[in-house]
Write a structure and sequence with these properties.
504 residues, five-stranded parallel sheet, 15 helices, 34% helix
């Protein structure tokens, strides 16, 4: 029973309007409509707007409807967690987390549990140290970070050496896999996932076959992995466009052409099923938007923000006695190769340049061989090697030196991580002008004033957090590193694409 004083009771007590009044009102409306034909155009306009809104809220059959329930397929296996994240089955189950939260504004990531043949089995199990003659050595230890670089205690003060490791340049796939499994926005429920991570170690699978003549062997693991993942219902919903993976070798190792004369590498990235998958790769193909360049792993992996700040202060205040340095490895360079030219030039300019030839020096197993000259130099020379960039670019910047590039194509890489204005953190010298002698590297670098060099170095030091991979399991990390930037970017990109598909 409704109380007499309530608004409801007062509404009920209102007398009905008279019938004569209603008839008069209807006649007035009819006269108004007949004398104003534009009224019908206005009604038609409102009807079209309502139809558009209805279509936008209900996707047509050609787009997947994410609101529909999808049963969990038996073939999708969950990645086992061997840490404290495993919940106790005897405790009261908590409500499932929301897909989007303040902590995970772009959504959550689900990691497939691929058969071990596609990741763990590809790692050499008995190679625990870096071997300069075996590119696979050092990849497995310490979740991809490598063993501690304890030899650096001789050149670094206090405990700064504790943030340094012997990290193999091909370890990106292992490192990303470990970080995804530990990430705060990882979900074990694929129904809550915005993005799906494929932990396939493509660089290791293809790298083992690169120097053989069997091109089909280079594609074997890639084809088998795609066959497996394409059978998952979550791949089928968006045809893989909400999936991403990491590749630890340059893009050119995965784009073998059909021309018989172009026999290098795998055809993995040319396969139709890979055309919508986002892949983080150490060097991208500039014409493919699904390739996203991420920094090569260096040996610097701070565990806390304090460790990072301490390192930044150290490299900022370091007394640099050399103008520039060049660190490289002799790989049967041709007589006209720029790297050989610069190595010879650096040796001749020994008063201004620190030269390190890793073919005769112990660079892989002794980090001080390359780190000390970089710390002593204002600039470091970064010519093209096997590809446009290399791990040396990031080792240079982590040491607080300003990179000197000789090809502008190097600036097309790493847009998510490096400053947008190349001149703010680097120097460009045209390689042809160096070769033909019209420009001297030393003279170009000496034209920069101390203030100009300081500004560039400060920009480099400011960028260090964005180009390193921290080791957060050793402490509470309170800064975003290269992994965080990459994962956040992938989640945001995939989230926006799904929202756009829903809108259409």
């Amino acid at each position: 029973m409704v109380p007499a004083c309530s608004p409801e009771s007062q509404t009920l007590k209102k007398p009905p309007k008279s019938t004569n009044f209603m008839k008069a009102t209807l006649n007035s409306v009819k006269i108004h409509i007949s004398s104003h034909p534009r009224f019908w155009l206005f009604v038609a306009f409102l009807w079209v707007q309502a139809l558009i809104i209805s279509i936008a809220r209900n996707p047509p059959p050609c787009f997947p409807d994410r609101s529909a329930a999808v049963p969990s397929p038996i073939s999708v296996r969950y990645v086992p967690i061997h840490d404290d994240a495993v919940s106790n089955a005897t405790t009261t189950p908590e409500a499932p987390p929301a897909q989007y939260t303040d902590e995970c504004p772009s959504g959550r990531v689900f990691a497939y549990d691929l058969p071990s043949a596609f990741n763990r089995d590809l790692i050499v199990p008995n190679c625990t140290d870096l071997d300069p003659w075996n590119w696979e050595c050092g990849i497995i230890s310490n979740h991809g970070y490598g063993r501690a670089a304890t030899e650096l205690r001789r050149i670094l003060p206090e405990d700064l050496h504790k943030s340094w490791y012997h990290t193999n340049q091909f370890t990106l796939e292992v490192l990303f896999h470990h970080r995804v499994l530990k990430h705060k926005c990882r979900t074990l429920d694929p129904e809550l996932a915005t993005a799906f991570y494929i932990p396939f170690y493509a660089g290791l699978a293809v790298g083992k076959q690169l120097w053989g003549n069997d091109t089909s062997a280079r594609d074997r693991h890639c084809k088998l992995m795609l066959r497996w993942v394409k059978n998952q219902s979550y791949w089928k919903k968006f045809n893989g466009s909400d999936h991403f993976m990491t590749i630890g070798r340059i893009t050119w190792d995965f784009r073998r052409l059909t021309d018989p004369g172009k026999s290098w590498g795998s055809s993995f990235l040319n396969m139709p099923s890979m055309q919508k998958v986002t892949r983080f790769i150490v060097e991208k193909y500039p014409g493919d938007e699904m390739d996203v360049s991420v920094p090569y792993p260096t040996g610097f992996h701070p565990k806390t923000r304090d460790s990072l700040i301490e390192w930044q202060s150290f490299v900022r205040d370091y007394k640099r006695s050399a103008l520039f340095s060049f660190i490289g490895t002799d790989r049967n360079w041709g007589s006209n190769d720029l790297r050989r030219f610069l190595m010879d030039y650096c040796r001749r300019e020994s008063g201004s340049c620190r030269a390190v030839d890793c073919a005769v020096s112990d660079c892989p197993t002794n980090s001080s061989v390359s780190l000390k000259p970089l710390l002593e130099s204002e600039f470091c020379l970064q010519p093209k090697g096997d590809s446009f960039t290399s791990k040396a670019v990031f080792e240079c910047m982590v040491a607080g030196a300003v990179p000197v590039f000789f090809l502008k194509t190097a600036f097309e890489q790493y847009e998510w991580f490096l400053p947008g204005e190349p001149e703010s953190y680097s120097v460009y010298i045209d390689q042809e002008e160096v070769r033909n002698g019209t420009k001297s590297v030393k003279e170009v670098l000496m034209r920069y004033s101390k203030d100009e060099i300081q500004k560039k170095r400060e920009k480099v030091i400011e960028t260090i957090p964005r180009i390193i991979y921290s080791k957060p399991n050793g402490g509470i990390k309170s800064f975003k590193d290269a992994f965080d930037i990459a994962l956040d970017g992938a989640l945001e990109r995939i989230k926006e694409e799904k929202e756009w598909a829903d809108f259409l």
